[in-house]
């Protein structure tokens, strides 16, 4: 069997049967202070990057986060526990979520060893976070027919039709597209239920959908009301 792990929805998808099972990660959940006293979880992919960087003894880490106008790059100071916007240079405090800590064997800024984080399930709003690295070629995702997105999902993917109106992809297609986007892919191949027999390619860099057979190109967009970065 072939499986897809969707980090945005924290779910495992059986690509043959469409069966969805929840998954959880062990380790610290990292947060950024968006407003004074208001701490917001980083996407799961970014938390994993931070934990890996700290375990490797790194002092800084570059990350990319979703924004209303695309994405923004940030630099994390893992010693001072600060996030800096690479464009505006705005700085915000970061922390491991209270009650959790980075992986065993790492140390804080004072050299104190940190304990292993507790194995508690993590539930968060999807963020669509893309990693900094892009693959060398496109990967194909088949949309499971019985896939149901998580109830907390707010991300919507849309394609621009002939008359200029934006049309949302189906729920199953949205989860599949978001999984590829969250994995940091540059593009993906997709079959759409509304047009059987046609193959499409979505380019996440140019944000366009191309009909592989006809060459017709349409704009696509990603709407995430929960984006606060």
Question: In which order are the strands of the major sheet placed?
Answer: 10-13-14-15-16-11-12
Radius of gyration based on Cα positions = 19 Å
N- and C-termini, Cα separation? 37 Å
**Tally of separate helices:** 2
Low-pLDDT stretches are: 103-153
What is the N-to-C order of secondary-structure elements (H for helix, E for strand)?
Answer: EEEEEHEEEEEEEHEEEE
The beta-strand count equals 16
Taking the sheet with the most strands, its summary is: 7 strands, mixed
How would you describe the shape? globular
The residue fraction in helices comes out at 10-25%
Q: What oligomeric assembly is this protein in?
A: single chain
How confident overall, as mean pLDDT? Answer: 74
Structural class: mainly beta
> How much beta, percentage-wise?
25-35%
Would you kindly provide a written description of the structure presented here, covering whatever features stand out?
- The chain is mainly beta and 229 residues long.
- The protein has two helices and 16 strands.
- The strands form three sheets. The protein has a seven-stranded mixed beta sheet with strand order 10-13-14-15-16-11-12, covered by helices on one side. A six-stranded antiparallel beta sheet has the order 5-4-9-8-7-6, covered by helices on one side. It has a three-stranded antiparallel beta sheet with strand order 1-2-3, with helices on one face.
- It starts with a strand and ends in a 6-residue tail after the last strand.
- Mean pLDDT is 74; it is low at 103-153.
């Amino acid at each position: 069997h072939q499986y897809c792990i969707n980090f945005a929805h924290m779910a495992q998808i059986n690509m043959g049967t469409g069966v969805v099972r929840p998954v959880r990660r062990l380790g610290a959940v990292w947060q950024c202070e968006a407003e004074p006293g208001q701490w917001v979880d980083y996407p799961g992919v970014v938390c994993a990057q931070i934990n890996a960087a700290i375990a490797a003894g790194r002092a800084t880490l570059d990350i990319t986060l979703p924004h209303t106008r695309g994405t923004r790059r940030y630099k994390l100071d893992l010693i001072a526990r600060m996030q800096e916007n690479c464009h505006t240079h705005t700085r915000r405090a970061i922390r491991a979520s209270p009650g959790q800590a980075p992986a065993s064997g790492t140390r804080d800024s004072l050299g104190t060893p940190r304990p292993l984080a507790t194995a508690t399930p993590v539930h968060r709003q999807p963020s669509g976070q893309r990693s900094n690295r892009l693959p060398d070629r496109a990967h194909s995702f088949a949309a499971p027919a019985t896939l149901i997105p998580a109830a907390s999902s707010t991300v919507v993917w849309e394609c621009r039709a002939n008359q200029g109106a934006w049309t949302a992809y189906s729920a199953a297609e949205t989860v599949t597209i978001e999984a590829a986007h969250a994995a940091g892919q540059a593009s993906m191949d997709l079959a759409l239920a509304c047009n059987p027999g046609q193959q499409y390619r979505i380019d996440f860099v140019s944000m366009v959908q191309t009909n592989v057979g006809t060459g017709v190109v349409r704009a696509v967009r990603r709407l995430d009301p929960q984006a606060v970065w």
